[in-house]
Amino acid sequence: MIFTVEKNDPLCRARTGFLQTGHVNAETPVFMPVGTQATVKTLTPEDLYQIGATIILSNTYHLYLRPGESLIARAGGLHRFMNWERGILTDSGGFQVFSLSAMRKISDEGVEFRSHIDGSAHFLTPEKVMQIQMDLGADIAMCFDECAPYPCDYEEARQAVERTTLWAKRCRDAHHSSRQVLFGIVQGNVFPELRLKSAQDLLDLDFAGYAIGGLSVGESKEEMYGTIKVMDRVLPRDRPRYLMGVGAPEDLLEGVRHGIDMFDCVLPTRLARHGSAYTRRGRITVRNREYAEDFRPLDPQCGCAVCKGFSRAYIRHLIKAGEMLAHRLITYHNVYFLVNLMKEIRQAIRDGSFMDFYHQFLSLYRIN
Amino acid sequence: MIFTVEKNDPLCRARTGFLQTGHVNAETPVFMPVGTQATVKTLTPEDLYQIGATIILSNTYHLYLRPGESLIARAGGLHRFMNWERGILTDSGGFQVFSLSAMRKISDEGVEFRSHIDGSAHFLTPEKVMQIQMDLGADIAMCFDECAPYPCDYEEARQAVERTTLWAKRCRDAHHSSRQVLFGIVQGNVFPELRLKSAQDLLDLDFAGYAIGGLSVGESKEEMYGTIKVMDRVLPRDRPRYLMGVGAPEDLLEGVRHGIDMFDCVLPTRLARHGSAYTRRGRITVRNREYAEDFRPLDPQCGCAVCKGFSRAYIRHLIKAGEMLAHRLITYHNVYFLVNLMKEIRQAIRDGSFMDFYHQFLSLYRIN
């Protein structure tokens, strides 16, 4: 894996860089759209190329349960299975096994749980999770981690950090692939000393990149941003830093400001399902009556294919009529909005005007 | 409107031609994908250009009820509303008001009915239907007709023909648009003498084109084909002939053979919703277990973008996972299959080999 820092912002910790490994050829900071079940909901790879996405995220937990990693391996790997030629990062399932599955039992050995699909019993260990991700053939694999809930007490969070370190060692030992790199995941909830301890444990294991896990799970913005700042003090500047599950526009700006290089988030696709679209002035709920005769595009300042061709009134009509095209059009726009925001952020960093861009964006964008 | 017959097949009644009016620039025979609610389900206009569609069908009944023709008029017409630059034909609602609405009461004046969406009461007359279609701005409008059910007795069918003629006169009188042409719809169920009478009545009114309505409603293939043959005896060769609601591959071939120039059908989109895809050997139900590890495209002989990139196994996975992309990919393929079949049919007619193509296609295609 090659990770080159191209430009450091003089006023904050923002930087641009270039990440190259396997199918990944990504300018950073980068937003990675989420394709949980081997599809970024409603979009084709062709759409995502057009949008400018360079890495997508997919999920070990979901693909292991359905259709199964061995079927995907027989299909020639996840890239070929879903017809995607650019980068894929797979999350380890650590988060999903805690948030989605039923009747889980965790021990140092691994996690026993029942599938959210059919109730079948499963047992995932760090070694098994490495084997699944190698079978899937992702370009970037993630360590199996324990994500403590929010809120939780110090002792609970401390134990999750210990187990995450133990599992990270076992992941590193079990991972053997010349075509896939492995990232560690820092846990520690909102306790700074646990975050620092977790990061130090992982640094000793020397991963290709470091992720900040367990955020955007209910904590306040202050707690999230505070944790990112703490991480900035210890994570090495020569490795990519990935803030997991975070993708609200204001959080992308804040993350970049504090040195984050990679983000992923289900929000653009999930919001689309609820008829909600990003604009430079905040989110709008297109299904609302006020847009019935609004013949402007979703975001008048957006240059995406959807905003070039379709009005709020038309998309609202599709929503009211129960037409899937609504979901597709809003998803396309929302994913474009975030991918393009990152592009503008990178340009601002290169131009030495990132903090101006940051303030200008946030002065217009109504957070809701 | 310009309709030019280019080539007549020497062995049957098939012909190629060119239809030009408004946004329509279509080679005939042509298959028109159905976009009932101002969208060909799951597809964008860009997809349809890529597929090669030149005319789509939309529905007066649906658009009148939602979002309303006046909103579409304020949006600049249906083309602009849905961002479609090629031809649009709108069905008159005659068929839908009988098949979809509740509590209808029909008289010579018009049809009183309740909306299938919210139960609201409405009254449609031939004059109102003309106004709606002019407001929508379709390139080709259809007369308001009465479509008798199948089966029905002779007297019922005779009365529907009489009313259809009466309404066709009123439609012709009420229709005034320099940018829209009007087609008549022949009724008469499966009674040859009524079909001939209906056609003669409409010919006296001199429409730009003639449609055969009230078929594909439950009658046998023999009755459908028999009716098409009867129509071929009386419909003028210098006007386009449109077989409404028919689109099974075998019916397209049979229709072309007997001189039909235009077809529409919801089957390619509806079948996609049920996980069923066209192939040269018949339809396959991709959701079935037998395709779980079938890494071939939907139709190995198809050249569409979906068959170039995605396997049956992947699309089955999407269906099982409840992913909308499945619906989108199969719809794209199914619409391409029929649009491309018509292209091959036109080429065969031009090459003087249509009947060879007809027999070759049907020898492979398993009808189910």
Please characterize this protein's 3D structure.
Two copies of one chain form a homodimer. With 368 residues, chain A is α/β, with parallel strands linked by helices. The first copy, chain A, is 43% helix and 20% strand. Chain A has two domains: 2-265, TIM Barrel (Alpha-Beta Barrel), CATH 3.20.20.105; 266-368, no CATH class. The first copy, chain A, has helices spanning 45-51, 60-65, 69-74, 78-82, 94-99, 126-136, 154-174, 192-205, 221-234, 249-257, 267-273, 305-309, 312-320, 324-351, 354-364; strands at 2-8, 15-21, 24-28, 30-33, 55-59, 87-91, 102-106, 111-114, 121-124, 140-142, 181-186, 209-212, 241-243, 262-265, 276-279, 282-285. In chain A, strand 11, helix 8 and strand 12 (209-212) form a beta-alpha-beta unit. In chain A, helix 11 (267-273) packs antiparallel against helix 14. The model of chain A has no long low-confidence stretch (mean pLDDT 97). The A-B interface holds A 37-39, 41-46, 62, 66-67, 71, 74-76, 81-83, 292-293, 295, 305, 309-311, 313-314, 317-318, 320-321, 323-325, 327-329 and B 37-39, 41-46, 62, 66-67, 71, 74-76, 81-83, 292-293, 295, 305, 309-311, 313-314, 317-318, 320-321, 323-325, 327-329.
